[in-house]
Design goal:
Elements: E1 3-7, E2 10-12, E3 18-25, E4 34-39, E5 46-51, E6 58-60, E7 68-73, E8 78-83, E9 92-98, E10 103-104, E11 108-112
Parallel strand pairs: 2-11
Antiparallel strand pairs: 1-3, 3-8, 4-5, 4-9, 5-6, 7-8, 9-10, 9-11
């Protein structure tokens, strides 16, 4: 079964850190364009970050630039989103996306609150 599974979400205080993972099964994503998005209830899904086939090329939304880092571990067929200096406005469901294949994960909740 081809799927993406996110993990690592949770509750964190403002200023804290979390690292999300997205593990692919049934497909090798090492050369795919992988992205992270997030969505707040009642709002449209928002693009957060992308990593390209080279793995050295990345791109970020202005709202997370300098705080979030997207990277991949091809040995584990996994893409990560390291999130530092978290803010309450980062609270959302975070989704992993294989842009090259049109695959989405089920999402993981991140809540930033004191």
């Amino acid at each position: 079964q081809v799927q993406l599974v996110e993990a690592g979400g949770g509750l964190v205080q403002p200023g804290g850190s979390l690292t999300l993972s997205c593990t692919a099964s049934g497909v090798t994503v090492s050369t795919d364009i992988m992205t992270w998005h997030r969505q707040i209830p009642g709002k449209e899904r928002e693009w957060v970050a992308s990593i390209y086939a080279s793995s050295t090329a990345t791109n970020y939304a202005d709202s997370v630039k300098g705080r979030f880092t997207i990277f991949r571990d091809n040995g584990y067929n996994t893409v990560y989103l390291q999130m530092n200096s978290l803010k309450p406005e980062d609270t959302a469901v975070y989704y992993c996306n294989d842009q090259s294949r049109g695959l989405w994960g089920q999402g993981t909740q991140v809540t930033v609150s004191s």
